[in-house]
Amino acid sequence: MKLQQEELRHRLMALGFEEVRFARLADVPAAGLTDWLGRGFQADMTWMERTAAKRLDPRLVLPGARSVIMLGVNYWPGKEGERGQSTAGSPVWARYTRYEDYHDTFKPALVTAGRVIEEFFGVRGTDYRYYADTGPVLERGWAERAGLGFLGKNGMLISRRFGNWLLLAAILTRVELEADGPLRARIRSLATGGRTGLLCGKCVRCIAACPTQAIPEPGLIDARRCISYQTIENKGMIPRELRRGVGEHIYGCDVCLEVCPWNRFARAGRRLLLAARFEITALTLRELLELTATRFAEVFRRTPIKRLRLTGLLRNACVVAGNVAVQAGTTHDLVAPLRRLAEHPAPIVRAHAVWAVQQITGAEATELLAAARANETDPVVTAEYEAVGRLPGAGES
Ligand code: B12
Ligand code: SF4
Ligand code: SF4
């Protein structure tokens, strides 16, 4: 069996997965997930509540499941992918969005992995199920159990070989596999007793660096405050009190990942399962504010950003524009496109555009937005106009 599993590992690694490790499906401690849900940290991701029972018991996902194969793909983009991200005032994209949607690009390899399992163990297609962020599986928990790395205080599965830059996928199977064992079993001397922060030591960089204080306790993320949630999952208004914290993050956030000292081991990935779209980072904020539906579809085709849709991206771009201009301390060539967006058909775009113009121009905003305001009937947008004078510098930040 051991030999067969090693062969399987090599076959799956050859498909493009940098990490392939096995775990037995047994006793999932419920406390982590139920506590997180109980505190409302899932925000409006109600699917996390609906699927909680399945997440806590993989046998509800695949009856008779015995093992899980945890897969990791290194997506550190290397120097080439980092270029363009350091220019002051340019929008910052989470690293995983600088590739075509991994949910799609992993799929053919997962299909092939399934065939390999069928061939190796003489099982059928109904004897396994695979997911990459697409199913009710606690991927980080299983990755920790299988020994891909440890759970950091930033909540991430951190690899000693790749730092914070592993995307995960899971194959649940009825095949009984020998477990590789967690990292903590291999380095007992360092074990702190808990599962979180095994190799963090006294470091708390990620908690301190989070721009919106979304990590109230080590390993626990309050999605309601997390920029990643606000700019990707939230389809409504970004709460006013969080907008300044969003800073230049146009889509997703990597701050608590990138400050982690374990990234010193990161190296550019093989990218067998990733299709680079690094050109996205070259888009200027003005170009983003002026996106049309056609251009949006063209530029973001096959990327994860397409799921946010044009209105969501314009909303985020408005928030970034308000922040960038305030940081630069200048009035800006962004005011003209923002004034146009204050008359956009979608109320959510209008509301955030009004906020951005107020951030950039202060008292002048009333005059600059007078025409748009005269036509405004939506209460959410009207509330943004009414907030003039109560925004940063005048009490609210
Ligand atoms: C919901 C979700 C989010 C939410 C909530 C984040 C969160 N921390 O829960 C939001 C939108 C904020 C988010 C953001 C991001 N996400 Co996300 N997200 C998910 C998703 C769909 C579910 C996570 C979940 O279950 N959360 C609930 C909490 C309670 O669970 P948990 O973090 O796994 O930890 C608990 C369990 O491990 C459990 N537990 C304890 N013991 C044991 C033992 C066993 C055996 C098991 C099974 C479980 C278990 O207790 C822990 C908590 O105490 C997963 C995909 C998936 N299906 O797992 C991706 C996933 C976690 N996200 C991912 C990524 C990349 C991100 C971002 C970096 C994206 C970005 N750049 O913007 C950020 C990072 C934010 C952060 N610091 O966590 C990757 C993480 C890869 C990695 N190396 O860790 C995942 C795994 C997707 C993937 N397939 O690659 N995400
Ligand atoms: S992803 Fe960003 S906002 Fe979310 S917890 Fe990490 S640093 Fe904070
Ligand atoms: S930044 Fe420090 S505390 Fe946070 S996960 Fe990395 S090592 Fe742990």
Question: How is this structure best described in words?
Answer:
The structure is a single chain. Helices cover 41% and strands 9% of the residues. By secondary structure, the protein is an alpha+beta fold. The protein folds into two domains: 1-278, no CATH class; 283-397, no CATH class. A hairpin with a 5-residue loop joins strand 5 and strand 6. Mean pLDDT is 92; it is low at 391-397. Cobalamin binds at residues 28-29, 32-33, 36, 45, 48, 94, 96, 132-133, 137-142, 145, 154-157, 166-168, 195, 219, 221, 223, 226, 228-229, 233, 252-254, 256-257.
- How many domain regions? 2
Shape: elongated
Radius of gyration: 23 Å
Helix content: 40-55%
Report the count of strand segments: 8
SSE-based structural type: alpha+beta
Strand content: 5-15%
C-alpha end-to-end distance: 60 Å
Largest sheet: 4 strands, antiparallel
Summarize the structure.
The protein has 21 helices and eight strands. By secondary structure, the chain is an alpha+beta fold.
Question: What's the helix and strand layout?
Answer:
Blueprint: H1 2-14, E1 19-24, H2 31-38, H3 46-50, H4 52-56, E2 67-74, H5 78-82, E3 92-93, H6 102-105, H7 107-121, E4 128-131, H8 139-146, E5 150-151, E6 157-158, E7 166-173, H9 183-186, H10 205-209, H11 227-233, H12 240-246, E8 249-251, H13 255-258, H14 285-289, H15 293-299, H16 309-328, H17 335-341, H18 347-361, H19 365-368, H20 370-374, H21 379-386
Parallel strand pairs: 3-8
Antiparallel strand pairs: 1-2, 2-7, 4-7, 5-6
Bound molecules: cobalamin and iron/sulfur cluster (2 copies).
One iron/sulfur cluster (SF4) binds next to helix 10.
